[in-house]
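Re: export button greyed out
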Amino acid sequence: MKPIYRDPGLPGLVPALAPSAEQWQSLFTLYIIAAVIVAGAVFVMFFYFLAKYRKKPGAQDPKDAPRVGVMADRGNPALAAILTALLISLFFGLTLNTFALNAYLQNPPNDPNALYVDVIGFQWGWRFVYPNARELIGELRVPEINRTCTPSVRGCWSGTVILNITSADVFHSFGIPDLKIKRDAIPGRVNQAWFVAEQSGIFLQAIRCYELCGTGHALMLADLIVQSPDSFHDWYLTGV
Amino acid sequence: MVDWHPLKRWLFTTNHKDVGILYLFTSLYFFVAAGLLALTFRTQLAFPSNTFLQPDEYNQAVTTHGLLMLLWVLTPLGAAFANYFVPIQIGARDMAFPRLNALSYWVYLSSGLLALSSFFAAGGTADWGWTTYAPLNTVEFSPQVGGSMMGLALMLLMASSIVSTVNFLVTIFRLRAPGMSLMRLPLFTWGWIFTSLLMLWAFPSFVSALSLLIADRTFGTVFFTSPQGGSLLWDHMFWFFGHPEVYVLLLPGFAIVGDLFSTFSRRPIYAKKIVIPCFAIASILSFTVWAHHMFMTGISQSLLEAFNVTTELISIPFAIIVIAYILTLRGGSIRFTTPMLFAVGSLGLFIIGGVTGVFNSSVALDTAFRGTFWVVGHFHYTIVGGGLTGLFAGLYYWFPKITGRMYNERLGKIHFAIYMIGFNLLYFPMHLLYDMPRRIFTYDASTGWGPLNLLITIGGFTFGISQLIMFANLLWSARRGPQASQDPWGGYSLEWGVPSPPPEFNFPEGVPVVSAEGITYRPVAAANGGHAMANGGHAYAGHGVESSEEHWSRWPIVTAAGAGIALWGVLMGLPALILGTAVLAVSFVGWGYESLRGRETIEAIGEKWPFDRLENLSLGMWLFIFGEIAFFGTLFGAYVFLRMNSPLSGFAWPQPGSVHNIFWGGFNTIILLTSGLTMVFALMFARQGSYRGLQGSLVATFALGAFFMVNKACEWKDLFASGFTFSTNPASSIYYVLTGVHGAHVVAGLTALTYLMVKALKARSTMEAGASVEIFGIYWGMVDAVWVFLFPLLYLL
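Workaround output, generated via the alternate export path:
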């Protein structure tokens, strides 16, 4: 298999590797649309006023111009109420979508064919421990999605990967940006994350640490290897 | 200005305007230092696999850049303007406590030098990022002494800020000119009120977090090394301070922008009566959003979703303010001189930073953003864009007032153009690097991050070089610029009604009286109740005369130097510690010999609402206690956190009575409470004028307090002997820290009490001591009250 380096690309342009990434992208797009509309409207008003009300040659000051010690009172408080109502309804929409995605990211499916991997961050690397005690350092191997492996079928890998993340020393943060998966690796705590990968391949340096953890922080990388369920199972049993 | 030797003026001044200039130069000095550090690590990141900096150098540069910019540049730059202009804007002759004001500055400088000197300690300075995450910040992972030195420097800086905060709040609430109601205050002064309140509540909680860190690093307690405390304890304590701190950085600049929009568009601020409450709401909400920095820590999801909502809510008051600012322009006649250009730029950049902030409020989107350059881009747009750009607008705006000369307009505009280009080249591409972890010292070319990083670095150098134009412009213009008139902009705040630069006591024509029609000046003699002052009549003060002869003190700088040397000595050796302590002791005696009234308190005769009934000193003490509540409150929070985490992580918290002797603890409680009672007697005798009674009850209070400490020391000795030491477990660590800081408060109280007794003895009368006894009584009551919480917490539960 040919190693794949991922381009960072622009928001929304990265082809998704997993449902988590797809859903993240669509939520992000929703926020971008809202942001462009709201900020756009504000900027248009802002620049329009700046242009329209610039000082004209020979113009007099407005009648209520402030002078030392005097600032006239003006303004319509109702505007604040309208603005608050508008923003709250906007946030309501955004938040419902955020909570939906959060519920998805936070709750791994109840899948008997899921692969559980213990992830242990250390200065400076990632150790991955599989249910049969097989251990990898700097490399996370997972099976790609297998749609025929439903919960009623036994003895297959569905492609669901559940990570139990912790740290052996300092505060790290485990992230797979391509999958839009991230969770802090904290000594003494186990945090869960999960994903399903939809595209097989060797993704070099796809796993990174996202919290400063000492001089090796930048080098705390691991590769993500997504294999077909069969070849993953071969590796899982034999180690090759 | 008085004809002083420049050394006397600049080292010993207590004039708020001189102190402001000192703040200005010092904060700009740290700005250059922190900016150069940023250029070093931007150089490192310009190309993939670059080797300009070693990893540990990179981490130190990043950490120091962050800490210096946030704490030694932005807030002090705001403080420079606040020092210079808040007293004038409210119509006062100086700060309420001019000597303490000078002390705040010198302690600030001293803490900054301590922070910089940590660079040269063996192993370098702190290298854990400005957020100082645990347990990377513990000795096991970061043993270098420079890290502890940075911690002590931060504590010293916090002390300076807390003193300054109390001073400003007393000044603004008590020293306003007649007719200067709170709603008439300019936005900048309002911004500084909320900045001060945020600092007063947030900084003490940072001090308590730092206390635990220093205790871990120097005494071996186990707060951040044990699983009961660890990473999350630090996270909660740090971000409880850290998020309000963001608004501390933003508000001064953001408030200046509002005043400038009004001044340069020649229109009153739109809905000022809504804008000010919005500042208040945002300040309050800022204490309820801290866990949005912890979205990925795996704590309760429903809690995090609540923080998601509060974070969205905090954008509403800011949105209202932004819209009000923009509506201010409507119907105006806008003059685009340099200050206005920077104000416009500041608001524009802040809008972008505010919008990306809404993205960060999303607990789900944060799976991508947490710990990446997206976050770095976001907060630079808010803090540098909104905060620093606004302060630079203020620098150009007030330059003619401070120097009496005009800067070069053309150079100012060139600065603005390059500033904006550099800024956006520097920070906008960071949003596109939303996969790139922050604080990495290198990356591989295969990541594809190279071109954007090069662009960012080019932007960084552009941004940095643009500041040189400003420095050249301002330094040249301060000497050679054309004379500025008293009011070149048509400003509305009171500094534009006095000469440029303002005379020593600000208002040469008398007391400013503000009304709806405008400002008039009431002659000094009339204002002072008809008593003309013999020596030139500067005073409209209730007490004594504040003349130039008393407008200085040599002790603030000595105290600050002593504190800096002593803290340096804590880590670097006994001789420095002894020297520092000796200098401190000498300075305290020196403070005692200076008359309290003449140099310490400036009274006004104008508006004092809502604190009409409190003396300046009592209000100051109450505000200080407000800060103490935050300090002890956060420590109690740490106790609760440790205790609640214990069963989860398999640690059995000691049963009541199994470690601590309830009888002796209870006995000590009674001793301390009795000392509170004798203090009440002291106050009573002081009011009745009974000198003997006063002296007797002060001695009794002292004896009881000292007995409490002796008893405490015996308890500590026995506990140590029984093997219950600093490092035994989280329960022992928190016991020693809580009783230790409380004990330190008792000792500080006993020192002050000695001072009171000497004073009463010398005066042989109660008149002089009366006010001091009352203020000390408030403090002593607080010390007692804290113990009333500590005793059950540590002994009975």
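Residues 137 and 660 of chain B are 31 Å apart (CA to CA). The button fix ships in the next patch.
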